[in-house]
Structure prediction request, 248 residues.
Amino acid sequence: MIETLTVPANLDSLKPIAEYVMKVAKMAGLDKKSMYKLRLAVDELATNIANYAYADDHDGKKDISLESNISQDSLIITITDNGIPFNPTNKIDAEMEVVQKPIEERKIGGLGIFLAFDGVDDFSYQRIEQQNINILTVYHHRD
Amino acid sequence: MALDLTLTVENEIAKITLAGELDGSNAADFKTKIEEAAAAEPQKLVLYMNDLEFMASAGLRVLVFSKQKMGAGVDVYVVGADEMIIETIEKTGLHHSLIIQETFA
Prediction:
């Protein structure tokens, strides 16, 4: 079963994106905790795309596209944008270090990628034909 | 996302109640409320999260900001938060600097 959503890449789209993720998570039969973590993961990545993916002079549509594949044993959500190349997997080490620091010494930033990685079972990134493609997989933990 | 914020200050305790969902679309509003609270120079900051359903990293960043803005002498309490929100706070190591409680007497 495949479900898709395409919305403008801005922060106002976080709400329809959240609704979409909760809908497909329900269809896939994820438990409450897995659903929350997946919603958080997608929210973080979509926020990054909305804030950084598209330059002001970007030629063409500034969209975020989501596609979900629901199967017996997994839910795979693919997030695609046409923005500047950004590989989240390159940022994870830096964010892991932030988590170790006391609050008083922290720069205010980051943590989104860390939470996105933490929230799913598998995470992969590809850059294909001018597109950033983030693939999030959750294996079944049914209620 | 919808987020309702209310601030009260009494007896040098600033209380902010958060209801709804907190993420990148509205974290700036929360930051503004923290600044308002800090301007009152309270001794404690209490964040009531009983009706907060969701918090993304943009919200965590405001928690870090609140601690830094208030200064070391001011305790920041997170009260009544959902287990998933507490889990996020713990995972990112912020529980070492915030006081997490079910209720605030």
Chain B touches chain A at residues 1, 21, 23-25, 54, 56-58, 60-61, 64-65, 67-68, 72, 84, 88, 91-94, 96-98 (CB under 8 Å).
